């Protein structure tokens, strides 16, 4: 079956060649060349390449990474240790507690309370009297008493004023050696704990 097909195909090719050759010879006799029949037809085979699906373009731009911010170091400040001297104790040999209580002088009375308040009675004779509230506390080697408010007065003013201060300390009397509260410009004051001195009057 295949052999007969080959024979027929060969015969057809030969016949076609004869026809073309005859046509060319015929045209040469007339002096005109048949351009269309001078060469066999050209068959152009176009091969279509398979379409390959392309993947989407990949962005190769390097990603910008923000720099990592380092945490600031923690600095712990050390507060220097300050040793403060207590302000409630005088620097003399007598502690502040020795000043507590009732003190007296000629026509004078003084009461020093542990809470820093005081009462003062000042007199000039038997008729002229002033009553004061006061504050007090340690000062240097002794204490300071500050008049605050006059709560009562009988007779003419004695010359004292609010805010006026007096400093003093417990020490032996110069007259007889008895321990007294000696106040600068405010006289000497005696306490029953230490005895009576002539400087305190009757």
From TrEMBL:
Q: Region entry Disordered: which residue ranges? A: 48-93
Residue stretches of biased makeup (Low complexity): 48-83
Q: Which domain of life is it from?
A: Bacteria
In the UniProt record, the signal sequence range is: 1-25
Q: Which UniProt keywords apply?
A: Signal
Which stretches does UniProt call biased (Polar residues)?
84-93
Do the record's keywords include Signal? Answer: yes
The protein, known as: Lipoprotein
């Amino acid at each position: 079956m295949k052999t007969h097909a080959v024979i027929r195909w060969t015969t057809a090719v030969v016949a076609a060649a004869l026809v073309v050759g005859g046509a060319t010879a015929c045209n040469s006799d007339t002096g005109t060349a048949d351009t269309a029949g001078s060469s066999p037809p050209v068959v152009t085979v176009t091969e279509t390449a398979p379409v390959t699906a392309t993947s989407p373009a990949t962005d190769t731009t390097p990603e910008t990474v923000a720099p990592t911010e380092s945490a600031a170091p923690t600095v712990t400040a050390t507060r220097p240790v300050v040793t403060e001297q207590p302000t409630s104790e005088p620097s003399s040999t007598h502690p502040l507690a020795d000043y507590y209580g009732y003190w007296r002088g000629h026509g004078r009375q003084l009461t020093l309370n542990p809470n820093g308040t005081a009462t003062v009675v000042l007199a000039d004779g038997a008729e002229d009297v002033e009553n004061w509230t006061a504050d007090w506390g340690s000062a240097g080697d002794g204490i300071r008493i500050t008049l605050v408010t006059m709560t009562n007065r009988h007779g003419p003013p004695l010359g004292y004023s609010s805010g006026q201060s007096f400093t003093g300390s417990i020490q032996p009397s110069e007259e007889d050696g008895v321990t007294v509260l000696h106040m600068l410009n405010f006289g000497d004051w005696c306490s029953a704990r230490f005895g009576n001195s002539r400087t305190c009057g009757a």
